[in-house]
Amino acid sequence: MERVAFLVDATGERVDCLLNPETVQVNRLAGVRVRGTAAGQLTGAGLSDDPLVFTGGGRTEIRLDVLFDVDLVPGQSRPEDVRALTRKLWVLAENSAQQDGALRPPLVRLVWGKAWNVPGIIAAIAERFDYFTPGGNPRRSWLRMRMIRTAESTAQVPQQMVMDESQTPTDSGPAGETRAEAHAAAPAATSSSTPAAAGTAGTAVTVVGDGQPVGPGNAAEGSGYSGVRFDLVSNEVLGSPLPWRSLAEHNHIDNPLTLKPGTVIFAPPPGTPAPVLPLSGTPPRRGLP
């Protein structure tokens, strides 16, 4: 009979369970959170549901309960204390491995025959003892473990899930909502490592779009607009969504709701005064100040 085991990737060590679990619970948490601002959660009295932000990613958890009993171990190798059998599983939840100079739990694989081979880390472990000897040694353990699935290596993470510093999400909107790629306006056009450098002359972003479909039933049908929120563009370029009017005037944009894909937005030089009059055209909505 195949037994559940945990294989440590770095060392190849195998940690076997004494008995297979009767049940295995798998939970999936999608990359969704409630939309919020720096002041708190964003909601409204007229809404039936809180607005959501789709951040991508997510988390998959595996929970299993395993029984250890010293009476089930052959006589020659039977320990007096059941903790001698479960100690190796506790070590898997310790920061005993290193990555980029920082400590972390080791990467392990949950292996059970040919049906289960899941890489991850042991995020939590709990143990309940009973069947004690007169000397206080526990002889039976009910062990509960929570494992979080991880990518086996950074090279195997899909490229669309890897964000560099120029795509770091902010509190003003969801991850990648503007889909803007920070770059320098110089002829050598290299990516900036400080995307939201407030007031930095020459900083620019290229508007790509937020992925909204253009088709039947869509408000942008036939318009060719990107659907990007200009306050989020301002946050990418200037480090704050508040001066969006000044940014729009500097780039000669009359209506921020009609940005076309491929539009390049440049940051004004430091010290540029904010406009006194509002922009002409339809005032921006969708949460703009």
UniProtKB/TrEMBL annotation:
Pfam families: CIS_tube. Residues 183-197 have a biased composition (Low complexity). Residues 12-155 form the Contractile injection system tube protein N-terminal domain. Residues 153-197, 270-289 are annotated as: Disordered. Residues 153-171 have a biased composition (Polar residues). InterPro entries: CIS_tube_prot_N. This is Contractile injection system tube protein N-terminal domain-containing protein.
